[in-house]
Amino acid sequence: MASPPLQLAATPLLLLLLVVVVPGARSSRVFSVVDYGAVGDGSHYDTAAIQAAVDACEAAGGGRVLLPAPGNYLTATVHLRSRVVLEVAPGARLLGGTRQADYPPESRRWYVVLAENTTGAGVTGGGEINGQGEAFVVTPSEVKNIMVSWNATGDCLGDECRPRLVGFIDSKDVKIHDITLNQPAYWCLHLVRCDNTVIRNVSIFGDFNSPNNDGIDIEDSNNTVITDCHIDTGDDAICPKSSTGPVYNLTATNCWIRTKSCAIKFGSASYFNFNKLLFDNITIDSHRGLGMQIRDGGNVSDVVFSNIKMSTRYYHPLWWGRAEPIYITTCPRHPDSKEGTISDIRFINISSVSENGVFLAGSKHGLLQNLKFKNVDLTYKRWTNYTGGLYDYRPGCEKMVKHKTGGMMLEHISGLEIDNVRMRWARGSLKGWDVNPILFRPSTIDKLSFHDWRSVDVQ
């Protein structure tokens, strides 16, 4: 278990957010979309009826907009308002339209459900919001689907021109709980410059073979709690990003994650700082486990990963990652980019079974500083047939580098403490590997401390 100081640091934040956000979330005012003309047959657009109910709810001072069951409510973008909670009843589905005309002109506002500049808006109800992501697959592939692109105006990037599922932009006191978010065409749940958000008991299901269908992206948003969530998707599952401002006071607890990419990933958008983040009691089955891709000059500090169990395996190299359980990197995206630092990161009570080792790589002007591993159990074995012996720096930097396999690879580090760390090598499954417990690439490596570190062979 994490030490008492860690628990004391995280608990007040969690309690404060829950106290601030939850009261008043369920108003007595209920506005059924059926009363405003919604049909719910899955083929006729119910956008006008849903939006009318939302606007009436806002005019009345707030409450709940109900999508009753049974019903499949096809819609273009629904714009939430302040103090309006969209309630999708169990057995009901909100279906996102698949036409570009169903969304606003600006690609940055392409969401099935969108809240901008709101206070106290949210989504709940026990039902489902479905982005019909399968309709955006041009060529299905078990390696990586080829996706549709709506890049007609040039204001978005290549095949990433697809609508997101649910977005809150420049909003505060956000409430998202007891809801299933299914088949996003692009990112699933997106917070942008939001403050004071609780995401609780949310299930996210994306196509395992589709790129860019991230689970939860926390962009420039602060004072966020994620708890009791189930995320099963192709791309990054929980992804803090700093594009226009810092990210601080993020707590994620009691979650289950499966992904073909990175389970928890900082960046790669990292122009501003990340500070005071806690990830605790999380189970992971992924390509890459705990990752930081700091590429744009922002700094990371005071981050705790605790009580985490994971399995990481190789997938096709079209997906970023090479099965690393822990991947902490900072380097310039471009030759003229700034280099950020990563400091005061703690890994406590971590266990993994992985096809590759821990990867800790700073850069010349962006050292990794004061990393601590305490009570960490790392088992290395192979069970897929994908090529090993590669380190993956993408995006930017050195891209893919051939290298010996190490239990830990260290580069540009000042301050690393190892306390009760065990490496277990399943030698029978590692035939052909050139493995070493600790590998150093030529660079600054100093202030290392090893206490109770073991490297042992297992069957």
From TrEMBL:
GO terms for molecular function: polygalacturonase activity. SMART domains: PbH1. GO terms for biological process: carbohydrate metabolic process. InterPro entries: GH28_Enzymes, Glyco_hydro_28, PbH1, Pectin_lyas_fold, Pectin_lyase_fold/virulence. Residues 1-27 form the signal peptide. Keywords: Glycosidase, Hydrolase, Signal. PANTHER family: PECTIN LYASE-LIKE SUPERFAMILY PROTEIN, PECTIN LYASE-RELATED. Belongs to the glycosyl hydrolase 28 family. This is Polygalacturonase. It comes from Dichanthelium oligosanthes.
